[in-house]
Design a protein that fits this description.
71 residues; alpha+beta; Structural Genomics Hypothetical 15.5 Kd Protein In mrcA-pckA Intergenic Region, Chain A; two-stranded antiparallel sheet
């Protein structure tokens, strides 16, 4: 089941998203997390912390969960 993550801005970076979605405790963990886990954005593997996500994007982290960016 997808979990909706609401953003208040036009976009959010993947690092900020992981914190907002309660996947990591702090933004500083993003680099480590992305090196240890596979993260798929709209079906494509993407490990870039600064990747911009916009409303409608789907984020799938195997073993963690599936998320949809909403505004």
């Amino acid at each position: 089941m997808d979990k909706n993550v609401k953003i208040e801005t036009e976009y959010i970076t993947l690092g900020q998203f992981l914190k907002l979605a309660d996947v990591i405790q702090s933004g500083g963990m993003a680099k480590w997390f992305l090196s240890e886990y596979e993260v798929y954005i709209n079906g494509a593997l993407d490990q870039r912390r600064g990747k911009k996500l916009v409303a409608g994007d789907k984020v799938d982290i195997p073993g963690i969960g599936q998320f949809v960016v909403t505004n």
